[in-house]
Design a protein that fits this description.
- There is one protein chain.
- Helix content is 35%, strand content 20%.
- The chain has helices at 17-28, 65-75, 82-101, 142-156, 222-229, 257-260, 274-277, 287-299, 320-326, 328-338, 398-420, 430-445, 452-466, 473-490, 504-528, 553-556, and strands spanning 4-13, 33-37, 53-54, 116-123, 131-136, 160-163, 165-172, 178-185, 191-201, 234-235, 240-247, 264-266, 311-314, 347-356, 360-361, 367-370, 373-380, 385-386, 450-451, 493-494, 558-563, 568-573.
- Strands 1, 2, 6, 7, 8, 9, 16 and 17 form an 8-stranded mixed beta sheet that branches.
């Protein structure tokens, strides 16, 4: 096969918030930048973010980045790296103001300042005070507005977009440095090598490993699959956030902003049950706490509906004008997917897989780091990366902040690296190209193989049953065996359509090869971590004074690293030392 080659200063895989923010930085600095995306940039999954982007602007009440940092460390259950968390919280105001200057249409207060709403886990006075208004919002369509603002800025900067292209594999030189990616144009099936001095993965999350997910169908862990096949470990993949409020039966997201505006969770007897689980923060406790409370209510028989399998999110007590102005999209979603007008009746909700805290290991400069060493020419930002600012559990609205801060910082790091590089790039080894072509060619020749849809469904149901909101020792070890069996099907899937043009069957088979890597990393890492921490809760972890809430800091205050080769696990220390302030000391996490 004759493979076309194209050269750039920088190649970015993914055109969501992180990818487009990095592209702005690079293109405005005069770098020849290519952005590859499976969908049109403004259809990237960042578009689904509803509630807001966190920044301690203090527009409605006193706030500062020190409080934001404390809340983020506490939210992470102390697994977050405190240097990266300080960096993110400190930079928050700067990146939000920059975004505003790009044309982001934030809602406004009467005095003209950006409107902010409270969100779960964001509190004043180092967790001792009341919920603080920190989420900068554009109604309930914040991600949508952000993507459009960033896309327009990229058009202005002449960023080159390759729309409806799927990156297949990461290309590495003989010395281990990253030389770009090999990608397929979805319309024609043609394959091209995109060679670059610097490569950024901003390909988003992998929530489609689960059966019930708020994630779009495009969230298939492509960046993680490519990184794993190229020998890069995946960090902290046992930590998955289940969003408390997915529409029951549909999984579509109902933003935490609904509770920020005053929404109340109720069980079958109409009780506002969060007071029992989080007496201080109540409905605005962190997401893992709220999700577990909801599942406990359902498991103990206080669920709603004929099957008692969900709870209710009640905003009927709010002024309809507030709902129509601050939550118009949520009303639309509720009517369309739940058949309920939230002005008149509560919304049926259930916890749904939402966000991966783990990913490709990076530092706060966006540089990929393995074994303490930087991988030359390789960067990652956004949900695909693990900086690790979210640790074991992410606070709401910190994801959009993560995109902006680390999209920008990775862009800055790439500019510095590109300027230091000689103009001529080393050749991509033919073995790297052949390795990728072999995966595609297998699909053209495979006979008597497994069905892609059936293998994917088996994986999703296994993940849902064995690594959900609560995790059980025996189910996890059984889940490892099942996932490894399913992998045997995935490596010999068969597609009936062998054509080149718009072959979605081929794309789905290639996506499944990425998903199974994420599923393996998740299940194996979760099985090995015998404590409870953040979103990862084990039934066999004891709550004692030495292990508060089942968290074992003596043995498990460390990051997991999963290597594809032999499904090997390694560990590295959590960075408890911030950049300029004192360490946020370990304590029991309660709300």
């Amino acid at each position: 096969m004759n493979i076309a080659k194209r050269n750039f200063d920088a190649v970015i895989v993914g055109a969501g918030g992180a990818g487009m923010r990095a592209a702005v930085q690079l293109a405005e600095a005069g770098m020849k930048t290519a952005v590859l995306s499976k969908v049109f940039p403004t259809r990237s999954h960042t578009v689904a973010a509803q509630g807001g982007v966190s920044a301690s602007l203090g527009n409605s009440e006193p706030d500062n980045w020190h409080w934001h940092m404390y809340d983020t460390v506490k939210g992470s259950d102390w697994l977050g790296d405190q240097d990266a968390i300080e960096f993110m919280c400190k930079k928050a105001v700067e990146v939000v103001v920059e975004l505003e200057h790009y044309g982001m249409p934030f809602d406004r207060l009467d005095n003209g300042k950006i409107y902010q709403r409270p969100f779960g886990g964001h509190l004043s006075h180092f967790g001792e005070g009341k919920p603080v208004r920190r989420a900068c919002a554009a109604a309930d369509r914040t991600g949508h507005a952000m993507l459009h603002a960033l896309y327009q800025r990229n058009v202005r900067a002449n960023t080159q977009f390759f729309v409806e292209w799927m990156a297949l594999d990461l290309l590495r030189g003989v010395d281990g440095r990253v030389l770009g990616v090999i990608a397929m144009e979805m319309e024609t099936g043609e394959i091209t090598v995109f060679q670059a001095k610097a490569t950024l993965f901003a390909s988003g999350g992998s929530g489609r490993i689960y059966y019930s997910s708020t994630n779009a169908f495009i969230n298939t862990g492509d960046g993680l699959g490519m990184a794993a096949r190229a020998g890069i470990p995946l960090e902290d993949m046992e930590f998955w956030q289940f969003h408390p409020t997915g529409v029951a039966g549909a999984g579509v997201l109902i933003t935490e902003g609904v509770r920020g505006e005053g929404g109340i969770l109720r069980n079958s007897s109409g009780e506002a049950f969060m007071e029992r689980y989080a007496p201080n923060a109540k409905d605005l406790a962190s997401r893992d706490v709220v999700s577990r409370a909801m599942v406990t209510e359902i498991n103990e028989g206080r669920g709603c509906g004929p099957n008692k399998d969900h709870v209710l999110l009640d905003i009927t007590h709010l002024d309809p004008k507030v709902i129509l102005s601050r939550l118009p999209g949520i009303r639309e979603i509720s009517i369309q997917f739940a058949g309920v007008d939230p002005i008149k009746a509560p919304i049926p909700v259930v916890p749904t897989c939402h966000y991966q805290m783990g990913g490709v290991p990076t530092n706060y400069h966006g540089e990929v780091v393995v074994g303490g060493q930087r991988v030359e020419g390789f960067y990652a930002a956004g949900e695909v990366a693990c900086a690790s600012v979210h640790g074991a559990n992410r606070l709401g609205t910190n994801s959009l902040l993560d995109l902006l801060v680390f999209g920008k910082s990775s862009g800055e790091s790439m500019i510095e690296f590109i300027k230091s590089e000689p103009s001529a790039l080393p050749d991509v080894p033919q073995s790297e190209i052949d390795r990728s072509l072999a995966r595609v060619n297998r699909l053209d020749t495979q006979t008597n193989g497994a069905n892609v849809d059936e293998a994917r469904l088996a994986m999703q149901r296994t993940m849902q049953a064995h690594a959900g909101v609560f995790r059980f020792k025996d189910l996890l070890s059984e889940g490892v065996s099942k996932i490894l069996e399913i992998e045997k099907q995935v490596v010999q899937t068969e597609i009936k359509d062998k054509s080149k043009v718009w072959n979605t069957a081929r794309i789905e088979a290639l996506e499944l090869e990425n998903l199974i890597e994420v599923a393996k990393a998740t299940m194996i890492s979760a099985d090995a971590r015998t404590e409870s921490r953040g979103a990862h809760v084990r039934d066999d972890a004891l709550d004692t004074p030495e292990t508060p809430n089942g968290r074992d800091d003596v043995n498990w205050l460390k990051h997991t690293l999963w290597y594809r080769d032999g499904n090997r696990l390694d560990y590295k220390a959590v960075n408890l030392k911030p950049l300029t302030v004192e360490t946020v000391a370990l304590k029991k996490r309660t709300y």
